[in-house]
Amino acid sequence: MDVLKQITDDLQRRKEKALLGGGPERIEAQHKKGSLTARERIEKLVDSGTFMELGMLNTSDVKGVEDKSYGDGLIAGIGKVNGRPAVIRAGDKTVFAGTEGNVHIRKSKKIHEFAVKNGLPIIALNEGGGLRMPDGMGSDGISEKLFPREMLTLHRQVPTMAAILGDSFGGPTWEAVSSDFVTQLQGTCMAIAGPRMLELANGQILSPEELGGVDVHHRYTGQIDDDGATEEECINQLKTFLTYMPQNADERPMMRETLDDPYRQVHEVLSILPQKSNSVYDMRKIISVLVDDGQTYEYQRKFGKALLTTFGHMNGHVVGIIASQPNQYAGASGPQECQKATEFICLCDSYHIPLIFLHDTPGFRISSEAEKAKMPTKIMVWNQALALSTVPKISVVIRKSIGAAYGNMCGPGMGGDLVAAWPTAEINFTGPEVGINVVYGRELARAEDPKEVRKQLLEHWSFDSSPYKAAAKNLIDDVIHPSDTRKFLCQSLEYLLTKKREKSERRLASWPTGI
Question: Residue 85 forms beta bridges with which residues?
Answer without folding.
Answer: 80
